[in-house]
Amino acid sequence: MFTENQIQQLNKALKNATPSEIIKKAFELSNEAVVTTNFRPYEAAILHAVSTEVSDVPVVWCDTGYNTPNTYKHAEQVIQELGLNVFLYVPKQTAAHRDVVMGIPSVDDANHALFTEQVKLEPFKRAMEAHKPKVWFTNLRKGQTAFRNSIDIFSLSADGVLKVSPFYYWSDEKLDTYLEENNLPNEFKYFDPTKALANRECGLHA
């Protein structure tokens, strides 16, 4: 649907735009959109920004089943306060069952790829197949990983979906201010079982 030339033009035109302006432009391009979240730190910002423009936008939450109690409490608070239209996707096998037969393999373990497929990639693929979005809002930011440094506000997913990161050039400090100004909570006790390092790519975006 979108060409690389169009992506480059969008990034050039909107490099200094506000998140609201970026989101409005994305919805002009297509209203067949979703916003994905795992309720990690600063996710309340993207959820607030997108749902402010379109209140009933589908919010896809792929829950690995390994979130901390703090993250689940944070998720419930954000969902209620923002009135989010959440669609929950979970692995086909429970964490309790997987703990017995596999556990949480390290990134060097031969089972790590299978583990990542089960808890993250398969639920995400299922979600995208169900919603078939043309626009995908996410909170990727420059400086998070080497891969994320190589993209921009607008990019194309492997399946050709227009991926939109309205806060791409924002720092943590700027996001802290956004959360404070909009009375939004944040939560830092987040655990991703597929990553050993904080700057490791999660698998959905690469």
Question: Nutshell version of this structure?
Answer:
It contains eight helices and six strands.
Structural summary, described in words:
The protein is of the alpha/beta class and 206 residues long. It is globular. Strands 3-2-1-4-6-5 form a six-stranded mixed sheet. The chain starts with a helix and ends in a 25-residue tail after the last helix. The longest helix has 20 residues, at 112-131. Helix content is 42%, strand content 12%. Residues 34-185 form the Phosphoadenosine phosphosulphate reductase domain. This is Phosphoadenylylsulfate reductase.
How many strands in all?
Answer: 6
Query: What is the N-to-C succession of helices and strands?
Result: HHEHEHEHHEHEEH
Query: What profile does the largest beta sheet have?
Result: 6 strands, mixed
Give me the CATH fold name: Rossmann fold
Name of the level-1 CATH class: Alpha Beta
Number of helices: 8
Low-confidence runs: 197-202
CATH hierarchy: architecture: 3-Layer(aba) Sandwich
C-alpha geometry: globular
Specify the structural class.
alpha/beta
When the domains are counted, the total is: 1
Rounded mean pLDDT is 91
CATH homologous superfamily assignment: HUPs
Q: Beta-strand percentage?
A: 5-15%
**Helix amount, in percent?**
40-55%
